[in-house]
Design goal:
It comes from Russula earlei. The chain is mainly alpha-helical. The chain has helices spanning 18-21, 29-32, 46-60, 63-91, 97-156, 159-166, 169-181, 187-209, 219-244, 249-271, 273-278, 283-309, 312-318, 322-334, 342-356. The termini are close together.
């Protein structure tokens, strides 16, 4: 994979000598090669077909693919943690969805933005703001409103509608990836998406059979909120992937945190200032809020790494397994009785994740072209956030 690094205009005054710029050790050749070819399938006989298919299956399990699979399950587990803590907060008289995510954006801002300033210097950072802040404002606004609309959807429509309509983020994300990166999807990738959604369908059926749904207050309004929220999710995921493939991770996440803090804070002060006074600010609720923020912080940190390892479409597919982890939480915390369909549905989702890369390797999902200020180049490739990701 060719990593072409160009110096942005706002960092020109910080350019070092050419001897310093060339001090970075080159990446290993296996990280630079995007021409990875899967072993071909032999259709000459039944035995040859199965043997070649097994070779193709073994070729999937590269270090990068395994990391992608593990990272996808980490973010899925984080989503489950946020769902559990949010449900507990609602039961304990703390229903402030916008205020709840404010602490997430604030934590991203106070950790990643100072590091960005450290790497760029104040002059470089301000020039980056002048040149690129508009695109990060759009990203942060869509992310904030996506979170808000999805939470509102759960208040109006049914659980089954939310589960099904939330999957709309997958085709939206794939569409914008095609627009941004000209990703051409192989039919096996479409099959992998179909298999993952089939796994989601099994979860919906199991929840329906076990009567876990609730009555809709306003189904039309709730479904509209969920479709809009899922659309914004798909857009922000693809857009953030486009950014992190061209800019340092700490710049993108730091800017998302900074502008998200501002937008989210203004919105919370307008629509939730009265509820803040009546909400229960107990020690237990503060602990739950801390757990929610920690899980979301990990998710927002791992997600851009997964975008580089695989793609944002793969990220959305990985989230479909979150309901299985929700079952595990329910077994230990609420003593739920598991329904048998949960287990095959989880297996089907994982199968879809494998099939998604059956033909197309993670390296082929998009080129990494990092715009790195020259003074940052003094570090190693791992410090730059390039590496295998």
């Amino acid at each position: 994979m060719s990593l072409v690094e160009t110096v942005p205009a706002y960092a020109v005054e910080d350019v070092k000598s050419k001897s310093e710029e060339s001090s970075i050790p080159p990446l290993p050749s296996d990280q630079l090669d995007r021409s990875v070819v899967r072993p071909p399938i032999d259709y000459s006989s039944v035995d040859a077909f199965f043997r070649s298919s097994w070779r193709r299956f073994l070729s999937l399990w590269t270090r990068r693919f395994v990391l992608s699979l593990l990272a996808g399950q980490v973010v899925s587990l984080c989503i489950t943690c946020t769902n559990v803590t949010t449900e507990e907060l609602n039961l304990r008289n703390w229903q402030l969805p916008t205020t709840q995510t404010f602490f997430l954006y604030l934590s991203l801002f106070v950790t990643y933005t100072p590091y960005t300033i450290y790497r760029y210097g104040f002059n470089g950072w301000f020039k980056m703001l002048y040149k690129d802040s508009w695109k990060y404002i759009i990203l942060a606004a869509c992310d904030v409103e996506g979170n808000f609309l999805v939470v509102k959807a759960y208040q109006y429509t049914t659980l089954l509608s939310c589960m099904l309509l939330d999957a709309w983020a997958i085709p939206v994300c794939m569409f914008f990836l095609y627009v941004y990166l000209r990703v051409h999807y192989h039919w096996t990738q479409i099959l992998g998406v179909f298999i993952c959604v089939t796994g989601l369908g099994l979860l919906v059926v199991s929840d329906h059979l076990t009567n876990k749904d609730w009555a809709a207050v306003s189904k039309g309004k709730g479904d509209a909120f969920m479709i809009l929220g899922a659309t914004l999710y798909g857009f922000t995921n693809a857009t953030e992937e486009f950014f992190v493939r061209r800019s340092p991770l700490y710049e993108v996440v730091g800017q998302l945190g900074m502008w998200g803090t501002i937008i989210n804070g203004v919105q919370a002060s307008i629509i939730e200032h009265n509820k803040m006074k009546t909400a229960t600010w107990s020690h237990r609720n503060i602990a739950l809020l801390f757990a929610y923020t920690a899980a979301m912080y990990i998710l927002y940190t791992v997600a851009p790494l997964l975008y580089r390892l695989a793609s944002s479409a793969y990220f959305n597919l990985s989230l479909l397994s979150s309901d299985f982890y929700g079952l595990l939480f329910g077994l230990f915390l609420f003593h739920f009785q598991p329904y048998w369909l949960y287990f095959p549905s989880f297996t089907v989702v994982l199968l879809g994740l494998v099939v998604y890369f059956w033909h197309s390797t993670p390296e082929e999902q998009g080129k990494i072209d990092i715009r790195m200020p020259s003074y940052v180049r003094q570090g190693s490739a791992a410090e730059l956030g390039v590496g295998e990701a």
